[in-house]
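Chapter review: from sequence to fold.
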Amino acid sequence: MSEFTNHERAEVIVQALPYIKRFNGKIIVVKYGGNAMINEKLKMQVMQDIALLQLIGVKVVLVHGGGPEINDIMNRLGKEPVFLDGLRVTDKETMDIVQMVLAGKVNKTLVNLLEKSGGKAMGISGMDGHLIESRFKDERLGYVGEIVKIHISPVLDLLEKGYIPVISTIGCDKDGNAYNINGDTAAAHIAGALQAERLIMMTDIDGILMDKDDPSTLIREISTSEARKLYDSGVISGGMIPKVECCIEAIAEGVNNVVIMDGRVSHSILMELLTDEGAGTMVTGD
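The token string follows.
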């Protein structure tokens, strides 16, 4: 027996109509990676959400990482992952693995799932069209890059032709060196270059919490200046610091707002964009 009646299904669609009208034709950047990618059923639901958004006229750009997959391949090859200040130390051999996994296996898997879900997708890396121009960030980190400039034309071309650009976060310099780029940072810069309506950062926690151990203390909405105050007071700490910094940077570059939410929750993207309650924490400008 169906959980919902036909009338209830119709009501859900009608209630979503104002949001469909609001985001029709707008650019939404989704950062997807980490633990949110591990569960295959959940991964398929995320791709279904994105395909559905495209079908109702939203221009979605998917920026992805793939840390767990990189670790898995490194372990199989007998190479121990090493991290410094939360960033992967990337020697030349590790960079080859990162490029193989992100631009190859992960990227093409996501493109395939989007196509199976009814979407129209094209996979590229930050090296294609010199999209993510980069340079060495810190010699201690090896081939970890910091972003010099985003050359956004390849993404705009794909959007114009009706594709969902699926972007793996590998940068390059003018000499052709490849760099491992932090996914959150890349998503923030890409969203800024696109002047996106919203950047959605899918993580493995509910959002910004007043008490990191209590999900009921979720902050539903916060301005960039309020976020800085929480950072100074120590409320925002640990792994949330770089994510909030990316939110502030994206808004400074012209993104309307940024949402940090738990990507492990089924259909969280649709909950965020098509319901009153939304999902996670929305960071807005002042």
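Two observations follow directly from the output. The CA atoms of residues 211 and 217 lie 6 Å apart. The domain at 25-284 is CATH 3.40.1160.10 (Carbamate kinase).
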